[in-house]
């Protein structure tokens, strides 16, 4: 297992120094390693360093993914493609209010939209399967609508909303987040949060919820109220399994019996986690090695934190904190990304900080971010850390690291991209 992550040798907690203390102890700090120096910086000073690094990384991501594309989009997804670059640019615009970032964001979304229209003609049957926020047309339309709203372009806003409302879900669509019904519902919730409460009607969402609940009850094993299959496995994690589906359902209006099914499913997962505190990647899997957002404790911790907030259940809070300990001990992965890397795992501590107000969780988020800031690019260049198969993408590479650095500037507002609303 140890070959998947770096040993976490950082102190469990370092109280912040004041600006005056930083100035007075500069000689002492010069005797420390660079990571320890970062950890002892006041949050306001550190955050500005992270911001500068994020904006430099953002420019690199744009240059490597968009500047070299010739404006032709080969991968339009948020996960590894051009839409992920647009999402990063939109985050940068929210932080800096630089309208050039918003304009470029909109230009990239338009290119994605044009590519999808072409694909719709050439591969109509295949395209119907691409309906989620992270990996499909729903993401292009939803982000396009929100960017258009911020740009004050009502015509373009109406265009994207009309396209979104034309999306139809195939009968054989799976139920998970990346490619399935939960991923479409997340896009609906994203639009309703950023455009208006009834942008996507309750009846449209309700029909999809009914399908998800019905399928989960049909697949259940008698002990877990809801279960789902994807490619022959009953996954538990955020990307393809229970954690992602339950999180999406908690943002929607549910009947009392559906609420009990969601809570019962989460209680079942808690009861059947590994002795280490980590979680199986799928039902019956005995391998305790994955500590990622997509599989294992990180993604499930985010869902449990959401459950603690929604239901006020102390068991969910306790389980989320215990999963957080797994992430602290085994979450310095030898990868940089959001999906299965340090950047994504950092959001566990930001979520727990937001939920509990405990500054030790903010420190842990800062510690993981400092590790990335101090060492990631060097470790990748030395071959000791994986930069991702698509090294500048949002979910696999440095795009996600840049997004995290921008998000952590306002820790109470930070949300795992395309997962936490």
Automatic annotation (TrEMBL):
This is G protein coupled receptor. Transmembrane segments: none annotated. Zn(2+) binds at residues 294, 339-340. One of its GO terms (biological process) is peptide modification. It comes from Populus tomentosa (Chinese white poplar). PANTHER family: LANC-LIKE PROTEIN, LANC-LIKE PROTEIN 3. GO terms for molecular function: metal ion binding. Keywords: Metal-binding, Zinc. It comes from the Eukaryota. Belongs to the LanC-like protein family. It holds the Pfam family LANC_like. CDD domains: euk_LANCL (cd04794). GO terms for cellular component: plasma membrane. The lineage of its organism: Eukaryota, Viridiplantae, Streptophyta, Embryophyta, Tracheophyta. InterPro entries: LANC-like.
